[in-house]
Amino acid sequence: MGDGKTHVHGHFNGLKTTLLFGLMWAIIMGIWWLTDGTTSTLSVYIVIGLVTTFGSYWFSDRLAIASMRARPVSEQEAPDLYRIVRELSAKAGKPTPRIYVAPTESPNAFATGRNENHAAVCCTQGILEILNERELRGVLGHELMHVYNHDILTSAIASAMATVITYLGYSLMYLGGGRDNRDSGPLGAVGLLLSMILAPIGASLIQMAISRTREYDADEDGSRLTQDPEALASALNKITAGASARPMRQTAGTQSVSSMMIANPFSSGGFSRLFSTHPPTADRIARLMQMAREMRDTPHVL
Fold first, then answer.
1. Which of 135, 143, 220, 294 is flagged as catalytic?
2. Less packed terminus of the chain by CB within 10 Å, N or C?
């Protein structure tokens, strides 16, 4: 079938996410073992990780909208935006989310909410000015799939696990290593250093990799919803150029929402790509154009 490669991409992304979560859990268990930890100690850190991320997950829609100073818009103010969101939601068999516009000229968009019944879609003023209707539909399809795929929950779990790893690293620092690392010579010292410093960094890298994987999935699933991957590819090209020309001002609020946006709203490059929540735009566009070719070869693919 013509859509074989895109299905393979989707299955691989799901497997990759699972493996990355497994790697984070392996790091947790490894550091816990090094600290001579007990089950109760690990449980305490897991509870801390869950508590610190629960609020941001449960109230993700309110927090993200407030951080961007976005306002709700009526159907009279944005009839085309409402029509597109309503059509895509109906096609997916989901409720229509609340719609907001953020007062910034930097082009971007995001969707948030713990589930489809508490979802919100937000477009910046800048993105509404530079995209045509076809491109905007591609962007909104991508964003809706983040909600339908429960990516907010996935991100919250990854964040909670990274928090657990960080606290376990602190334990190594303050407890001196456990497992007799202080008396095990240079190798023990190296292991302690790696666990204390590099494990939390590694957890952050894995967390970012999970986010990039979810972006690829939203690109693919959103394009299946709209049946127009070329539109999203064109939109990503415009958004990236626009965000580069008019990068979003970095504040605590915009930084907290940046991972939800369809493209990185800040200037980045080089080493910072390792810690980026978004894949390179060129890679995303290449995948989408490949998907478009496969859809043309198999016109009735769903």
1. 143
2. C
Gap between the Cα atoms of 191 and 100, Å rounded: 49
pTM of the model: 0.81
130 lies in some domain: yes
Residue 270's pLDDT is 53
- Average model confidence (pLDDT) across the chain: 83
**Domain total in the chain:** 1
List, as residue ranges, the binding site for Zn(2+). Answer: 142, 146, 215
* 143 carries an active-site annotation: yes
Residues comprising the binding site? 142, 146, 215
274 domain residue, yes or no:
yes
> Is 171 a member of any domain?
yes
Strand order in the sheet with 98-102: 71-72, 98-102, 120-124, 109-112
- Domain membership of residue 152 (yes or no) is yes
pLDDT tens by residue, 89-109: 999 999 999 999 999 999 999
- Quote the domain boundaries for residue 239: 4-297
The CA distance from 59 to 112, in Å, is 9
pLDDT digits (tens, 9 = 90+) for 61-76: 898 999 999 999 999 9
In total, the chain counts a number of residues equal to: 302
Residue 172, φ and ψ in degrees, nearest 5: -60, -40
Among left, alpha and beta (phi > 0; psi -120 to 50; other), residue 77 is: alpha
Nearest CA to 37 among 165, 166, 168, 163?
Answer: 168
Instruction: For residue 228, name the pLDDT band (cuts at 50, 70, 90).
Output: very high
The pair of three-digit structure tokens given for residue 231, joined into one six-digit string:
């539109």
Q: Read off the DSSP letter of residue 75.
A: T
The closest alpha carbon to 240, from 137, 102, 152, 131, belongs to 131
CB neighbours of 19 closer than 8 A, spacing ≥ 6? none
pLDDT of residue 269: 57
Taking only the tens place, the pLDDT of each residue in 154-191 is 888 888 888 887 777 777 666 555 555 544 555 556 66
Residue type, 71: R
